[in-house]
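Record 1 of the preview.
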Amino acid sequence: MVSENLGWEGSSDLRVSDAERQDAIQRLRAHLTDGRLSLEEFSDRVAEAHSARTHRELDHALRELPADGGDDRSSPASDVQGRRRREDIRNCVAAFVMPNLVCTGIWALTSHGHAYFWPGWVLFGTALVFIKKILHGRPEEEVVSSAHVPEGHTESAPSAVSAAHQGRQPPEVPGFERTVATLLFVDIVGSTERAAALGDVRWRELLDEYRALCSKELRHWCGREVFTKGDELVAAFDSPERAIRCACALRDDARSVGLRVRAGLHAGEVDRRADDVSGIAVHTGQRVSANAARDEVLVSATVKELVAGSDICFADAGDHQLKGLSGSWHLYRVADPGGQRPPAGDHVQASSVE
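->
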């Protein structure tokens, strides 16, 4: 049982402490990093851990996962490598023994064992090759290229080798990529009333000014604009921390031109083709944004856990039912992160989400 491996003694119906919940969340984060959990599963299980009252409930958040974050079973890749190594040794032995047996047999039949032992040269040459192959094995490129590549695959050989080194399968659809991103949704609150009060011309000028500020902040925080629809902006980030700081900066910029906005963030796997993204994470981020109030930046539990250790503070916004999505979602309100910005002109590459 998981609780036994984590050191929780006694009945599984005993209450858990905050420290035990945090320990379980740290283990879930390690499993996310190791690839045992997707971001969606991680978010769901973190929510379970936060709400767990007993060891039994906390056990359920860690179900089907190794207790120590490791796995004693050998991986399929290591099994394949072992079989290849044994096959190489058998081939080397055969390549060494067979020609020497043949040459020695010919010498014995033709010289009756009294002539010059010319097979010694064959023995010397094959021994050198045998020792070299045993010590060094097959070249790494040969091992990688021996893997099966589907017929008609358009990816080049160097690209396939690189993909094998990175432990991933080459993409099957040209231009299509499954990746992890933090999505930011920002829209203007009361835009219809404001547009009616200002008139079309002045509203367009104000909207252009606001969009210029959005573009500036996205460049500053290394974000990518996905699309704009009316007064709504959708952007993607590699770093959840930068996404949060960008949302707060956009809120402040909007105030400076007399607008009020709300923002929502969620992190998850998305289908990316060029600059367009799609997937359930996109819909989730939009629903999170819809629950935000004026001047509020809301994030999902996934985003909050991914920036653990940063100086960004959160306030509990409670459980919410997100339209079209099953279950309840725990959301958090972002406190002002202190307006921390990188130095002007510093466009340091955003860190990738692990």
